[in-house]
């Protein structure tokens, strides 16, 4: 089963004291690119989150946002150093009186002085860490489900396009049945007009026509293209299906389609080949979104 690289998931968990919410968003990327936005209180958990995300997300440009809410809003409130605030206030007041400054907001200035307000930066304990990880795993579960649902849509689209290429291949086979006799007839007619039928060495003509027709034969390309298309569908439905493998198979399909066009020497087949190429390009575009 394939998965889309585009994904979204959100999960929350709480224990009566604190509630964590984790949100994940991803877009396609050749590699795993993680961007984390964390509250300062859980900054020490970043490595653990990155490690788990690397194992569970695999690939994509992923944004992870964590938010926290405390039932007791004072639990992580900043503290004010009252003694230091008074000292700053007293000094600022004395300076203001000395210079005759009456409009200064001394109290506000004192609050901004160093170490007056101290943020509570205590790291989360083990219990709170479990709440965070539970929210993370809940978000991952929704995120993975989203990717699978998107992957199902991609799978149906890719299958339909490969089947369309196979239908075009059937059209090539129909046209190809009359191509070689027509080429043979055209060359024979050309020689008759150019040098006269009585002057043509038929044994030599047969040898040359066999060599020329062998160069135009499309049998191998048709067989290989059909094989690649069937292998693509097989790989698409495999349990270990992934975008990179499907991309390699699509490249092989492209080589056979290009060879069909260059060897065909037939306007009808070349028109069909153009339609094949259009579908293959759409397949390649879709594969950029496959995990």
Summarize the model shown.
Residues 178-290 form the Endoribonuclease YicC-like C-terminal domain. With 291 residues, the protein is α+β, with helices and mostly antiparallel strands.
Identify the notable features of this structure and list them briefly:
four-stranded mixed sheet; hydrolase; elongated; YicC-like_N; YicC/YloC-like; alpha+beta; nuclease; YicC-like_C
Characterise the protein shown here.
The protein is an alpha+beta fold. The chain contains eight helices and six strands. The chain has helices spanning 46-57, 82-99, 106-111, 126-195, 202-216, 219-236, 243-264, 267-287, and strands at 7-14, 18-27, 32-37, 60-70, 79-80, 117-118. The strands form two sheets. A four-stranded mixed beta sheet has the order 1-2-4-3. The model has no long low-confidence stretch (mean pLDDT 86). It comes from Sphingobacterium chuzhouense.
Order of helices and strands: EEEHEEHHEHHHHH
Tertiary shape: elongated
Structural class: alpha+beta
The multimeric state of the shown protein is single chain
N-end to C-end Cα span: 10 Å
CA-based gyration radius: 36 Å
Instruction: Tell me the β content.
Output: 5-15%
Main pleated sheet? 4 strands, mixed
Q: How many beta-strand runs?
A: 6
Low-confidence stretches: none
Pfam family, one: YicC-like_N
Domain Endoribonuclease YicC-like C-terminal: 178-290
Family: Belongs to the YicC/YloC family.
Cofactor: a divalent metal cation
What layout of secondary structure does this protein have?
Layout: E1 7-14, E2 18-27, E3 32-37, H1 46-57, E4 60-70, E5 79-80, H2 82-99, H3 106-111, E6 117-118, H4 126-195, H5 202-216, H6 219-236, H7 243-264, H8 267-287
Parallel strand pairs: 3-4
Antiparallel strand pairs: 1-2, 2-4, 5-6
Helix pairs in contact: 1-4, 4-6, 4-8, 6-7, 7-8
């Amino acid at each position: 089963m394939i998965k889309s690289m585009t994904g979204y998931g959100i999960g929350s968990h709480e224990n009566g004291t604190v509630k964590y919410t984790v949100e994940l968003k991803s877009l396609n990327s050749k590699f795993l690119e993680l961007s984390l936005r964390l509250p300062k209180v859980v900054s020490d958990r970043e490595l653990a989150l990155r490690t788990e995300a690397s194992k569970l997300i695999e690939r994509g440009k992923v944004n992870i946002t964590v938010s926290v809410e405390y039932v007791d809003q004072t639990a992580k409130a900043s503290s004010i150093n009252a003694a230091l605030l008074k000292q700053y206030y007293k000094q600022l007041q004395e300076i203001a009186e000395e210079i005759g400054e009456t409009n200064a907001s001394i109290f506000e200035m004192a609050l901004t002085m160093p170490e007056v307000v101290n943020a509570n930066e205590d790291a989360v304990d083990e219990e709170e860490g479990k709440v965070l990880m539970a929210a993370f795993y809940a978000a991952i579960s929704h995120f993975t489900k989203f990717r699978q649902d998107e992957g199902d849509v991609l799978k149906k689209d890719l299958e339909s396009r490969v089947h369309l290429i196979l239908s075009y291949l059937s059209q090539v086979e129909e046209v190809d049945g009359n191509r070689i006799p027509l080429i043979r007839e055209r060359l024979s007619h050309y020689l008759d007009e150019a040098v006269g039928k009585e002057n043509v060495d038929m044994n030599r003509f047969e040898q040359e026509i066999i060599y020329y027709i062998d160069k135009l034969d499309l049998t191998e390309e048709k067989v290989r293209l059909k094989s690649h298309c069937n292998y693509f569908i097989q790989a698409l439905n495999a349990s270990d299906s992934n975008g990179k493998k499907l991309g390699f198979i699509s490249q092989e399909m492209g080589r056979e389609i290009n060879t069909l066009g260059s060897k065909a020497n037939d306007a009808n087949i070349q028109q069909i080949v153009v339609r094949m190429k259009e579908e293959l390009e759409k397949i390649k575009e879709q594969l950029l979104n496959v995990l």
